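Reopening this ticket.

The earlier resolution said the output was attached, but the attachment link was broken on my side. Pasting everything inline this time so it's all in one place.
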Amino acid sequence: MDKNTLSLFQLCDSNFPTGAFSHSYGLESYIQEDLVYNEQTFSEWLHVYLYEQLVHTDGLASRMVYEALEEENLEAVWKMDRLLSVQNLPRETREGTKKMGDRMLNLVGSMYEVPVLKQYREQIKTKKCFGHPAIVFTMIGHHLGVSKSTTILYYLYSILSSLVQNAVRAIPLGQTAGQKVIQQFQGDLIKATEKIMVMAEHDFGIISPGLELSQMKHERVNIRIFMS
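Inline output:
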């Protein structure tokens, strides 16, 4: 592993302050309905979330943004930002993702001198873009010269790692159980990345209705730990 790859991996740290600890992406709804209540049921939920939502949204977007950056096609990057926002129907997850994107952009902007980050900030400031962590993460991966597949893999890992930590708090799971889940999903993360690498553009936005409904239901819960 070279220094640049390690630098990108820093963004995967659950302590990296993007606000991911505040969002469950609908998991809390499943917990409150007693559908997710232990390590096994959480793993089942996480498997669906990875393959039926994350792969078709953030994951595919990361690949397409990386390719657009290689071609210096910033209009395609801005278009993907808008697509990521409009396909995200649940209000809480849409607004939460925007806040996370803004935080990540501010953080990495203070760490790296990358012209495209400044351009992205200007697009957001003028309300031409919304801001999304998958795009910011991919911009940094591309800037550091990390390969496309590794950038995607690390981004998927960062999301799953945050969700596992949130499940440890919310279900609750033991820390050991949480680490076992992360270990068990290593193969799935590689398979998900391989799937993303061969997906077509029209595969973007194909999401399990059950996941979207759980994210919408969360907007009306009376007692909550998470913002989404």
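Reporter confirms the inline version is readable. The mean pLDDT is 93. The chain has one domain: 25-218.
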